[in-house]
Amino acid sequence: MTTDCKKTLYIAFLINFAILLYLSTDYTRYLEGITAWHDYLYYVLASISHFFILGVLPLLISLFIFFISKHKTSTYCIFACLSAFSIIMLKIDTTVYSQFRFHLSPIVFNMVFGPRASDIFHFSTSSIIKTSTIIALVFISQGLILKLAEKVQRRISSLKVKATSAVIFSAIFSTQIAFSWADANFYSPITQSINTFPIFHPMTAQSFYMKHDLVDQEKLRENRKLSKISGSKNIKYPLSEISATPLTKQKNILFLVIDSWRYDGLSEDMTPNMHSLSQSSQVFNNHFSGSNATSDGIFSLFYGVNALSWDAFTHYGKSPVFIDQLQQQNYELQLLGSANFENPPFDANVFSKIENLRLHSNATTPALRDIEITDEWLELMDKRSKDKPFFGFLFYDAAHGFDYPEDYPSVFQPALDEVDYTALDDNYEPREFYNRYKNSLHFIDSQIARVIDKLKQENLLESTIIVVTSDHGQEFNNNEKGYWLHGGNFSKHQIQVPLFIYDADLEAQSYNHLSLHYDITPTLMERALGVTTASSDYSNGWNIYNTENRDWFITAYKHNYAIIEKDRITRVNLQSGLFTIKDLNLELLPDAKLNHSIMPEVLQQINKFKQPQSQL
Question: What share of the chain is helix, strand, coil (3-state, %, to 5)?
């Protein structure tokens, strides 16, 4: 009985291992620069060895349980549950990776299950039913797999465990040796596997290969240039004390920020009210966020600093000097987010000095929350102190959730009735999805019209500087690389956003020079708050009306940053130190070299406010 149970579990494991291997092929679809036969061989061996290790855990745990309990039924139940869980988690991870190119992680789980997670992720009823059905079927299938395994084990006299183990351990050994060599020589066709496979931590041996002169010295020098990123959480921000002479006639400042508003989303048909206001504004046609995601995009907007400083600034609860100046100059603050300010934790950095901060909305959908913050702002305007200037920040979320009220006219047709995120893949036709997105923007535009109308009614339009922009863009597989939404790459579809600034003191004008989120608060600090301190002491940007040429800029998200040049995107992973160079359409440039002439300034900008303890 004991032997039969073990054999059954082993056979069931092999079946599940085959399922895991099949699911893992979704990862290899996104490999780049694979041309040589040894690259393909590496990925065959790496897939076998890595997913064998992940898949064998339910077997080992179940065998241990059986060793202790000698109870077959309970052991089978534990094995079935653990195996089903492994398959489900791998399938979820492949889905996440296919759309965003990152894996399940504590950060992702915090976004999904953390404070007010429903503000970030919005799943339709049909998607929930579909997913629940699949999960149930996976669990049921484990019972069928065990029954099949029992039948098979009765007919097989030997399972050849030793031979199988020898093949697996040979694959593991070969994979580790191959990766350690590729890592030492920065051979990207193989080293990209560390980001491609989940929970993949292969062996490295750079010191050994360097000692025996088995490394590419030129590539080693290039990589070291990109790796000189300070890991210090010690910061000096600003670099000098902020000096300001408040203006005699202070202007109100209003930020209208639309989550996930892509660069081509400002138009007469899609956003008629904002388009109308832009005709009297300064419009920046070549504007980029500091990130492809909300957390770092908002960070770059308020601080004017690249988001690689997120951890350090959050660790110390360092408030933006822009917010500090608003408070010092007695501005009334109206901070209203449709989604919450806890996840991402803006209450710990951008708004860390705000007492009684409004953390979240009460409505249950993005569109209703957008109506809620507009209503609240209108009430605040009625109650505000007339002898104080105000700073307003309204952060709209309906476009991020592809949402609008049921009774709102669907202007763009045909449009999806609801979004099924699990259906998004390389072959998905985006037209109806994109039309739903445009309808959500049209709805947000109707809310912003209420804001503009209020300013006009109160005769405040001329005395208010209005900044209208987004935290990041939104992609609909535009590069045909399987990318959807945001957070996955640094092409223009995910980081280029609309921006116009209404300032009645300036003539309406359209600008085509490269402008960045880093430039917005320095401009307001100088023009609206009378700050005389050089922007270089508190920002990576400059006055946005400065049309001086920029040859490159930095954008970042989580553990990745990119150097965006006029013809290329150099993406760097901070954890592995590896980099890839692609053109602006995300086509790999395997023979491209780093632009060495800009690297000293790139590193200076990245480490600008990170200081060793001795310099504080």
Answer: 50, 10, 40
The CA distance from 243 to 241, in Å, is 6
Q: Tell the burial category of 268 from Cβ atoms under 10 Å away from its Cβ (0-12, 13-18, 19+).
A: exposed
Per-residue pLDDT of 529-556, as tens digits, reads 999 999 999 999 999 999 999 999 999 9
Does 455 have pLDDT greater than 70? yes
CA distances to 177, 308, 310 from 231, in Å: 29, 10, 12
Instruction: Give 92 or 219, the one with higher predicted confidence.
Output: 92
Looking at residue 613, what is its pLDDT? 45
Cα–Cα distance for residue pair 49/21, rounded to 1 Å: 10
Cα 550 from Cα 602, distance rounded (Å): 12
Q: Please report which confidence band the pLDDT of residue 465 belongs to, taking 50, 70 and 90 as the band edges.
A: very high
**Closest-CA residue to 270 (of 92, 19, 448):** 448
* Pick from 557, 587, 591, 590: nearest CA to 574: 557
Q: Which three-class secondary structure state does DSSP give residue 469?
A: strand
Q: How far apart are the first and last CA of the chain?
A: 69
How many residues are recorded in the chain? 616
Amino acid at 441: L
Which DSSP helix (H) or strand (E) runs through 447?
helix 431-457
Chain-centroid distance of CA 51 in Å reads 26
Omega cis (within 30) before 612? no
pLDDT digits (tens, 9 = 90+) for 250-263: 999 999 999 999 99
DSSP state of 484: E
DSSP 358: -
User: 254: which DSSP letter?
Assistant: E
Nearest to 200 by CA among 59, 126, 97: 97
Residue 248: how many CB atoms within 10 A of its CB? 6
Please give the structure tokens belonging to residue 182. Answer: 């590729």
Q: For residues 494 and 487, is the Cβ–Cβ distance under 8 A? A: yes
Contacts of 551 (CB under 8 A, 6+ apart): 565, 566, 598
Nearest-10 Cα torsion for 357, 358, 359, 363: 180
Tokens of residue 7, six digits: 């054999």
Alpha carbon distance 63, 144 (integer Å): 19
Strand partners, 396: 258
Q: Is 543 within 8 Å of 282 (Cβ atoms)?
A: no
Name 287's bridge partners.
515
The answer to whether residues 484 and 493 touch, using CB atoms and an 8 Å cutoff, is: no
Q: How far apart are CA 27 and CA 46, in angstroms?
A: 12
d(CA 185, CA 209): 9
Distance CA 205, CA 211 (A): 10
d(CA 86, CA 357): 41
What is the C-alpha separation between 586 and 604, in angstroms, rounded? 26
Query: Which strand (E) or helix (H) includes residue 560?
Result: strand 560-565
SS3 537: helix
DSSP state of 516: E
CA 351 to chain centre: 21
At position 489, the amino acid (one-letter code) is: N
Cα–Cα distance between 438 and 98 in angstroms, integer?
24
Please give the full DSSP string across 258-305, using - where no structure is assigned.
ETT--TT---TTTSHHHHHHHTTSEEETTEE-S-SSHHHHHHHHHH-S
CB 63 within 8 A of CB 82: no
